[in-house]
Amino acid sequence: MSKKTNTTNTITIDDKDYSLDDLSDECKTEIQSLQFCESEITRLNAKLAVAGTARIAYQRAVAKLLPE
After folding, report:
1. CA distance 66 to 52
2. Separation between Cα atoms, residue 58 and residue 4, nearest integer Å
3. Which domain holds residue 38?
4. Does some domain include residue 1?
5. In-domain check, residue 4
6. What is the pLDDT of residue 5?
7. The total number of structural domains that make up the chain
8. Are 45 and 38 in contact (CB under 8 A)?
9. Residues 2-35: pLDDT tens digits?
10. Complete DSSP assignment for 1-68
């Protein structure tokens, strides 16, 4: 399911536009939950990238400190 919001109070899901005013409160709540999840995934992926970069730096530092 792809979704995109625009400024005309509509949401596009799977290439179909829906007026937010026509959606049930339950549907709006589910959309908000989906948007929150997508934001969290983006945030966590950024944190994962930072941790991965740090891990590489630590691995290189350890490799330099090991006796030959």
Report:
1. 21
2. 39
3. 24-68
4. no
5. no
6. 53
7. 1
8. no
9. 665 555 799 999 999 999 999 999 999 999 999 9
10. --EEE-TTSEEEETTEEEEGGGS-HHHHHHHHHHHHHHHHHHHHHHHHHHHHHHHHHHHHHHHHHS--
How far is residue 30's CA from residue 45's CA, in Å, rounded to a whole number? 22
* Confidence bin at 65 (pLDDT 50/70/90): very high
Q: Could you tell me the two tokens for 1?
A: 């399911």
Q: pTM of the predicted model, to two decimals? A: 0.71
> Is residue 20 a contact partner of residue 10, using CB atoms and an 8 Å limit?
yes
Condensed to tens digits (0 to 9), the pLDDT of residues 35-53 reads: 999 999 999 999 999 999 9
Which pLDDT band holds residue 1 (cuts at 50, 70, 90)? low
Alpha carbon distances (Å) from 29 to 13, 25, 48:
15, 6, 28
Instruction: Let me know if residue 55 belongs to a domain.
Output: yes
Examine residue 31 and state whether it is found in any structural domain, yes or no.
Answer: yes
